[in-house]
Amino acid sequence: MVDLQDKINQVRAVLASAARDYAPVVFANSLGAEDMVLTDLIGKYQPDIEMFSLDTGRLPQETYDLMQQVRERYPVPLRVLFPDAGQIEEYVARHGVNGFYGSVELRKLCCHIRKVEPLRRALSGKRAWITGMRRDQAPSRESLQLSMLDRENGLQKFNPLLDWSNAEVWEYLRQYDVPYNQLHDRFYPSIGCAPCTRAITPGEDIRSGRWWWEDPQSKECGLHVSKAVPGKPA
């Protein structure tokens, strides 16, 4: 059985390898529990990896509080990107401020404007990006690989916490006194935009509180739905 320190060492090795072989590398920091593990490890051991976060304009106050804590605690600057105001205004004019509840298509369009387009700007000029995704988070993530060629964005994608359990994530946060979103203490294991996130009940999977009105297989925002294949680019 692999203990936590072994897993930490494995993540550090992945981060070091990515930074060495694919510079410039950037970490897409959603400020969730998993991403706070990576924030801490990058801040301590791999500060040459850049960090960014997407402010959709609909985040909970608790997320903004954590964003400020990250800025004050870690040496790696957290770049914050915003959606295009004109596209947001057009969406609201056509579909309403909460139009995303109307259909999966409208929800994904909202996510595209608020997340996918800013992500593309954040990844511009980079050779690799890092995420905190884990296989056991949701059915849509069961096929994740440690290293994947993200063809849609044209760079390599690393998921260093791929095989970590939720318990191991929280063991790390508590052992190293890492700040985290206070909504986690109110049964919000996965946190996105405020109107698209709810608390969960015992027995539900950890992403069941995201877009809870949709089928579990469609519960992605578009950031991680791409034509990605395992392995390194040729």
UniProtKB/TrEMBL annotation:
<dbReference type="GO" id="GO:0019344">
    <property type="term" value="P:cysteine biosynthetic process"/>
</dbReference>
<keyword id="KW-0411">Iron-sulfur</keyword>
<dbReference type="GO" id="GO:0019379">
    <property type="term" value="P:sulfate assimilation, phosphoadenylyl sulfate reduction by phosphoadenylyl-sulfate reductase (thioredoxin)"/>
</dbReference>
<feature type="domain" description="Phosphoadenosine phosphosulphate reductase">
    <location>
        <begin position="25"/>
        <end position="199"/>
    </location>
</feature>
<dbReference type="GO" id="GO:0046872">
    <property type="term" value="F:metal ion binding"/>
</dbReference>
<dbReference type="InterPro" id="IPR011798">
    <property type="entry name" value="APS_reductase"/>
</dbReference>
<protein>
    <recommendedName>
        <fullName>Adenosine 5'-phosphosulfate reductase</fullName>
        <ecNumber>1.8.4.10</ecNumber>
    </recommendedName>
</protein>
<comment type="similarity">
    <text>Belongs to the PAPS reductase family. CysH subfamily.</text>
</comment>
<dbReference type="GO" id="GO:0043866">
    <property type="term" value="F:adenylyl-sulfate reductase (thioredoxin) activity"/>
</dbReference>
<keyword id="KW-0408">Iron</keyword>
<dbReference type="InterPro" id="IPR002500">
    <property type="entry name" value="PAPS_reduct_dom"/>
</dbReference>
<dbReference type="GO" id="GO:0005737">
    <property type="term" value="C:cytoplasm"/>
</dbReference>
<comment type="function">
    <text>Catalyzes the formation of sulfite from adenosine 5'-phosphosulfate (APS) using thioredoxin as an electron donor.</text>
</comment>
<dbReference type="GO" id="GO:0051539">
    <property type="term" value="F:4 iron, 4 sulfur cluster binding"/>
</dbReference>
<feature type="binding site">
    <location>
        <position position="111"/>
    </location>
    <ligand>
        <name>[4Fe-4S] cluster</name>
    </ligand>
</feature>
<dbReference type="InterPro" id="IPR014729">
    <property type="entry name" value="Rossmann-like_a/b/a_fold"/>
</dbReference>
<feature type="binding site">
    <location>
        <position position="110"/>
    </location>
    <ligand>
        <name>[4Fe-4S] cluster</name>
    </ligand>
</feature>
<keyword id="KW-0560">Oxidoreductase</keyword>
<feature type="binding site">
    <location>
        <position position="196"/>
    </location>
    <ligand>
        <name>[4Fe-4S] cluster</name>
    </ligand>
</feature>
<dbReference type="InterPro" id="IPR004511">
    <property type="entry name" value="PAPS/APS_Rdtase"/>
</dbReference>
<dbReference type="GO" id="GO:0004604">
    <property type="term" value="F:phosphoadenylyl-sulfate reductase (thioredoxin) activity"/>
</dbReference>
<dbReference type="GO" id="GO:0070814">
    <property type="term" value="P:hydrogen sulfide biosynthetic process"/>
</dbReference>
<feature type="binding site">
    <location>
        <position position="193"/>
    </location>
    <ligand>
        <name>[4Fe-4S] cluster</name>
    </ligand>
</feature>
<keyword id="KW-0479">Metal-binding</keyword>
<dbReference type="Pfam" id="PF01507">
    <property type="entry name" value="PAPS_reduct"/>
</dbReference>
<feature type="active site" description="Nucleophile; cysteine thiosulfonate intermediate">
    <location>
        <position position="221"/>
    </location>
</feature>
<comment type="pathway">
    <text>Sulfur metabolism; hydrogen sulfide biosynthesis; sulfite from sulfate.</text>
</comment>
<keyword id="KW-0963">Cytoplasm</keyword>
